[in-house]
Amino acid sequence: MKPVLVIKFGTASITNPAGELDEAVLAEIARQVATLHTTYNIVLVSSGAVAAGKRYLKSYNASISERKAAAAIGNPLLLHKYAAYFEPYGIAIAQSLCERQHFSNRDQFLQLKKTYEELWASNIIPIANENDVVSSLELKFSDNDELATLIAVGFGASSLLFSTSVAGVLDGNGQVVREIPLIDKTALALADGKKSSLGLGGMVSKLTFARLATRMGIQVVIFGVHTPDGILKAMTGETGTLCLPQPCSMPARKKWLASGSLVTGRLRVDAGAEEALKNRHSLLAVGVLAVQERFECGEVFEIVGEASQVIAVARAKVSSDAIAGKGKVQNVAIAHVDDIVLL
Predict the structure, then answer these.
(1) Domain boundary among 190, 212, 243
(2) In terms of domains, do 182 and 71 share one?
(3) Would you say residue 248 lies in a domain?
(4) What is the CATH number of the domain that holds 279?
(5) Are residues 10 and 54 in the same domain?
(6) Which of 100, 176, 248, 261 is least surrounded by CB atoms within 10 angstroms?
(7) What is the arithmetic mean of pLDDT over 188-213?
(8) What's the structural domain count of the chain?
(9) Which residues pair with 15 in a beta bridge?
(10) Mean pLDDT of 198-215
(11) Which of 261, 256, 274, 268 is nearest to 313 (CA)?
């Protein structure tokens, strides 16, 4: 079987300064991806539906409902553009609108994987995007950097590429950092925290999810979409920022949890907290018995009960260090109910 390659294109990467789809960029994506198509099973994760559809709304102020409406209009328009530019290379594409439960629910995850394998068997490239139309959680809390990482980890990708509107991760002098051996706090500090006016992510998001992907043994490259032959050169290490994969020897169940939730830490909770989770309440610091594996804000951790059985996974609102500090005194919320998945 061919190795899996996941390439994520953000809104800022495929739109012009006016916020409209940049068809010259789409044409270049198709040309370069067509070159790699014979070697890899490829998944494209593409934002841009909102950008494609927003101009059709009478007034657009980027509210949640307006983003939903713009996405509903823009999804078919975006896919039509991609189809047109891939058609000269004899490559068909398929739309894949994903939600979190497609990864956190094992049955749905396996069905999604089987569908992608069926598409690859017919040399079809799936183009994935968050299902913005029905899911406010994705619009408010997540972005396609996360979706691309979920797909890469879940399907055992060898490489994950994040495109940006700049040449890669930049240092304090504006120069591209060519290689990051380990994504630690020093590396995360390189991100400027900026987001595009149309997108949800930014360099902070890319480095955060690159950190999770490399922990799962995946090579990550953050590259500039406007670099000539940027995709091809990113694959050969000639451009962008290479984030080196780390050794990973997770058992099968752990890998599934990682593909659905990207587990990086672990908390042990008492019986009261376990009952509260089952009754769909947020996780509060008062119910934590021990931090068994540390995690940072925004990362996902396992929650185990007093019997040491995994009962849930959750996205952290605070780092595990906060629990050891004033967290219990102030009864800090460790994870919001909307970011907790019971297993």
Answers:
(1) 243
(2) yes
(3) no
(4) 2.30.130.10
(5) yes
(6) 248
(7) 71
(8) 2
(9) 21
(10) 77
(11) 261
Three-class SS state of 2? coil
Residue 63 sits in the same domain as residue 193 = yes
| Coil vs helix vs strand at 320 | helix
- Taking alpha carbons only, the member of 64, 297, 306, 63 closest to residue 185 is 297
Asked if residue 253 belongs to a domain, the reply is no
pLDDT tens per residue across span 60-98: 988 888 989 999 999 999 999 999 999 999 999 999 998
Compute the average pLDDT of residues 49-67: 90
Whether the Cβ atoms of residue 285 and residue 332 lie closer than 8 Å to each other: yes
Round to whole Å and give the CA distance between 223 and 234: 6
Q: Which two tokens stand for residue 39?
A: 């070697």
Residue 252 lies in a domain: no
Domain that holds residue 324: 262-342
Say yes or no: 227 and 322 in one domain. no
Strands 125-130, 41-46: pairing is parallel
Torsion from C-alpha of 100, 103, 108, 111, nearest 10 degrees:
130
| Phi, psi for residue 288 in degrees, rounded to 5 | -85, 125
CA distances from 73 to 63, 80, 140 (A): 15, 12, 19
Q: Read off the pLDDT of residues 228-282 as tens digits, 9 standing for 90 and up.
A: 999 999 999 999 999 999 987 755 445 565 556 556 789 999 999 999 999 989 9
For residue range 157-178, list pLDDT tens digits in order. Answer: 999 999 998 899 998 888 999 9
CATH of the domain at 197: 3.40.1160.10
According to DSSP H, which parts of the chain are helical?
A: 11-14, 23-36, 49-53, 64-86, 101-104, 106-121, 136-141, 144-154, 185-188, 203-215, 230-235, 252-261, 271-278, 320-322, 328-330
Same-domain status, 210 and 306: no
Whether residue 19 contacts residue 198, with contact meaning beta carbons closer than 8 Å, is answered with yes
Residues 236 and 338 in one domain: no
- Residue 327 DSSP symbol: I
Q: How far apart are CA 140 and CA 134, in angstroms?
A: 12
> What is the crossing angle of helices 144-154 and 203-215, to 10°?
10
